[in-house]
Amino acid sequence: KDTFNKIAAGEVVERPSSVVKELVENSIDAGSKEIHVEIQGGGEELIRVLDKGEGIEPDDMLKAFMPHATSKIMTADDLFRIRTMGFRGEALSSISSVSKVLMRSRTEGSDGREVYIEGGDLKYEKYSPMDRGTLIEVRDLFYNVPARKKFLKTRSKEAGTIGEILSKIAIAYPEISFSLVSDGKTLLKTYGTGDQKDVIRQVYTKKIQENTFPFHEEFDSLRISGFVGNEEISRGNRSQQSIFVNRRLVQSRTITVAAENAFRAFATVSRFPFLILNIDILPEIIDVNIHPQKAEIKFEDDRHIFKVVFDTIHKTMAEGLK
Ligand code: ADP
Ligand code: MG
């Protein structure tokens, strides 16, 4: 069972940034308007996430660490209309099997509780006072899986990846204020103003805003919005592109190809635009359940999505450059 958990952990927890992503998604699901992340040693030594969300009931705290324990899916049908970031109930159990985890949490009407789990084994649990919300600390990631530790990059690279992922999550959730402190240095701070443009300003250099055009269109039950342009800073690759479907950072060949094809007619320097693209769509007609890290997305009607994205980007560039 122990080995099984460690192997399963590898699918969800590949590196420190995947831990940060899972923990922050849990904080979002808990309705927190404030999420603070602190890391040491690129996240290998310590990842700490503090939120002011709804917290976990004392009796549910240990359950949260069991494989396939989720409070978010009640019926099989729920799987086809996912509205939360998490739904597999795998993250906490996986993370806790390959690290040392301390969790402290309190809900509105209960006493706070703290648990400490090492390599999947409960070491202690106790009463612990705190404000409403949840604190989780993950130490010594992969301390018991040396083979996995070998695949980590340098600590500054891992810290950089954490910064990139958290920045993108912050863009998708402009109403939440985020902070990231790495070895005592603040790498990211957003203010929860609710305006995506404010977060983009905070995350990217000023230059990126100059030739970047906003868009916002609605087609029946589908909403598409975002910013496109300024390929000068796209560094000839896709690192400056973010696609969010129902506020989840995803990979989608359909959307990427549609946006780049539409952009091509206006490209002067590089065929890769700077792109922030949000699509809000009925959760029933997408499938996010095909990848362990929930990254690649499939649409029921691919051609429709392609057309919507192509037309929107084309129109935005044509009008923006007029
Ligand atoms: P999932 O998010 O897929 O449900 P996780 O393993 O990430 O699975 O979390 C297990 C459960 O622990 C969640 O369903 C939730 O009930 C609880 N939980 C985890 N993190 C938090 C948090 N920050 N605030 C409130 N509840 C949390
Ligand atoms: Mg989760």
Automatic annotation (TrEMBL):
The gene is mutL. This is DNA mismatch repair protein MutL. Keywords: DNA damage, DNA repair. The chain holds residues 9 to 330 of 609 of the full protein. Belongs to the DNA mismatch repair MutL/HexB family. One of its GO terms (cellular component) is mismatch repair complex. One of its GO terms (biological process) is mismatch repair. Residues 200-318 form the DNA mismatch repair protein S5 domain. GO terms for molecular function: ATP binding; ATP hydrolysis activity; ATP-dependent DNA damage sensor activity; mismatched DNA binding. This protein is involved in the repair of mismatches in DNA. It is required for dam-dependent methyl-directed DNA mismatch repair. May act as a 'molecular matchmaker', a protein that promotes the formation of a stable complex between two or more DNA-binding proteins in an ATP-dependent manner without itself being part of a final effector complex. It comes from Youngiibacter fragilis 232.1.
